[in-house]
C-alpha cells in the first residue's frame, strides 16, 4: 500500500468502531521544501466559501487538527460542529486518491510527481 497510513480509531457516524477501524485509510502530506513533519490526512472538506480543510481524525469532542486553505493558509484545530452546516464536499479513504494536495505540499505516495 505504499505510504498510506491506516486509521486506528475513528467513526464519524454512530457505528461499531472495531468494524470500520480496519477499513479507513489516510494519506500523508509533506511540505514540498521538506519543512516540518509528515501529516496524515483523514479527510478533505470543502465549505461553501470554497475553503479547503485537510484534517486528521476528530477527537471525542469533534475537534480535528489540520491544514486550512482559506483567506490565509494555516495549521490549527477545527470544530467539526462549527463547519458542518457549510460542508459541500467530503472525501475520505480511497476518495483522497482524487484530491490534490494543499498548495506547497505533496502526497507522500506520489513523491515522484513532486
Distance N to C terminus: 19 Å
SSE order: EHEEEEEEHEE
SS-derived structural category = mainly beta
Which stretches of 5+ consecutive residues score pLDDT under 50? 1-23
The assembly state of the depicted protein chains is single chain
User: Over all CA atoms, what is the radius of gyration?
Assistant: 14 Å
Taken as a percent bin, the fraction of beta residues is: 35-45%
Number of helices: 2
Main pleated-sheet profile: 5 strands, antiparallel
* Biggest sheet: strand arrangement: 7-6-5-4-8
**Overall 3D shape:** globular
Number of strands: 9
What value does the average pLDDT take? 81
| Relative helix content | under 10%
The total number of structural domains is 1
Walkthrough of the structure:
With 114 residues, the protein is mainly beta. It has one domain (5-113). It has 2 helices and 9 strands; from the N terminus they run βαββββββαββ. It has a 5-stranded antiparallel sheet. β6 and β7 (73-79) form a beta hairpin. The longest helix is centred in the N-terminal third of the chain and has 5 residues, at 17-21.
Amino acid at each position: 500500500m505504499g505510504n498510506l497510513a491506516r486509521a486506528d480509531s475513528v467513526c464519524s457516524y454512530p457505528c461499531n468502531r472495531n468494524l470500520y477501524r480496519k477499513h479507513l485509510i489516510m494519506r500523508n502530506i509533506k511540505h514540498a521544501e521538506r519543512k516540518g513533519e509528515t501529516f496524515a490526512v483523514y479527510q478533505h472538506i470543502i465549505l461553501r466559501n470554497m475553503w479547503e480543510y485537510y484534517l486528521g481524525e476528530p477527537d471525542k469532542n469533534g475537534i480535528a487538527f489540520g491544514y486550512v486553505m482559506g483567506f490565509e493558509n494555516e495549521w490549527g484545530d477545527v470544530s467539526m460542529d462549527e463547519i458542518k452546516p457549510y460542508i459541500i464536499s467530503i472525501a475520505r479513504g480511497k476518495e483522497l486518491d482524487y484530491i490534490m494536495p494543499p498548495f506547497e505540499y505533496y502526497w507522500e505516495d506520489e513523491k515522484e510527481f513532486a
